[in-house]
Design brief:
Blueprint: E1 5-12, E2 15-24, E3 29-37, E4 46-52, H1 59-65, H2 69-75, E5 78-82, H3 121-136, E6 139-149, H4 151-162, E7 169-173, H5 183-193, H6 198-202, H7 206-209, E8 220-225, H8 229-232, H9 238-248, E9 252-257, H10 264-279
Parallel strand pairs: 4-5, 4-6, 6-7, 7-8, 8-9
Antiparallel strand pairs: 1-2, 2-3, 3-5
Length: 284
């Protein structure tokens, strides 16, 4: 069994919100992740929902602010919330800005020499972490969903699109829909993947991945606040995702929410809808 260490545990809605740490082989550092263990886990294996957080976040933001536990308890889902990047790798420049390096792993596997050893969040989320969860919790290993916010919304979308059938459903709050075309994505991809590797960039862009998606039917749910300042700044580009889905024949429900911003106030308001969405596809 993969060794994990329990850092905290709190009873909530009949289940347990826990935080664990472990030594990640993919990232070469100690990582923390949150796990909500629902009361239904006492009776047998349960489905798993992965949550990917946004820029600057740790595993704490989601588990303390999103109000997810009541919905997870209602549906009997184990919910996993990893950190957003490697930590403490002592790479020059890793803590220089909020949108690159620490807290900004972008859920890709870096190819640039300086970052490629540690910044492998895509492989961590899609390979190592699921193996850790399967080895340590009573879960239905082939019954997974994924969702996220902002940078994590981008992460959820690409993980689902790059691994047809691995996740039964996907949803996102204010995702970075088209990172190869927005300032956040261009900065991150240039640093991690190299300025001249535009074909590699496309492998981590939902709008590009949709062009060649040929997996099982996938219905995407997205909530986007109309009062989101990052929407106005051109970082999120939801219209590009809608257009790419239309061309690819992949259903997307894009809900533009009047006055809501980019915060966890927005996320917590519609969290129940997203759990209901995943419940349609995660069958016992």
């Amino acid at each position: 069994m993969t060794s994990i260490t329990e850092e905290s545990t709190n009873k909530v809605f009949g289940g347990w919100q826990k935080v664990f740490s472990h030594q990640s082989k993919e990232l070469g550092c100690k990582m923390k992740f949150g796990v909500y263990v629902p009361p239904q886990s006492d009776s047998g294996p349960v489905p798993v929902v992965y949550w990917l957080s946004g820029l600057t976040c740790t595993e704490q933001n989601f588990i303390t602010k999103a109000g997810s536990q009541s919905h997870a308890a209602k549906h009997g889902f184990l919910v996993v919330a990893p950190d957003t990047s490697p930590r403490g790798c002592n790479i020059e420049g890793e803590d220089d800005s909020y949108d690159f390096g620490s807290g900004a792993g972008f859920y890709i596997d870096a190819t640039e020499e300086k970052w490629k050893t540690n910044y492998r969040m895509y492989s961590y989320v899609t390979k190592e972490l699921p193996a850790v969860i399967a080895a340590n919790f009573k879960v239905q290993a082939d019954n997974n969903a994924i969702m996220g916010h902002s940078m994590g919304g981008h992460g959820a979308l690409i993980c689902a699109l790059k691994n047809p059938g691995m996740y039964k459903s996907v949803s996102a709050f204010a995702p970075i829909c088209n990172p190869t075309c927005c300032p956040w994505g261009i900065k991150g991809f240039t640093g991690y993947l190299g300025e001249g590797n535009k074909n590699v960039w496309k492998e981590y862009d939902a709008c590009e991945l949709l062009k060649k998606y040929n997996g099982p039917p996938l219905e995407i749910l997205v909530d986007q606040g109309k009062g989101d300042n990052f929407l106005a700044d051109g970082q999120l580009l939801p219209d590009n995702l809608v257009g790419a889905c239309a061309k690819a024949g992949v259903p997307v429900v894009m809900r533009m929410q009047e006055d809501y911003d980019h915060s966890y106030y927005f996320i917590s308001t519609f969290m129940g809808d997203h759990f209901d969405h995943h419940a349609k596809f995660l069958k016992d």
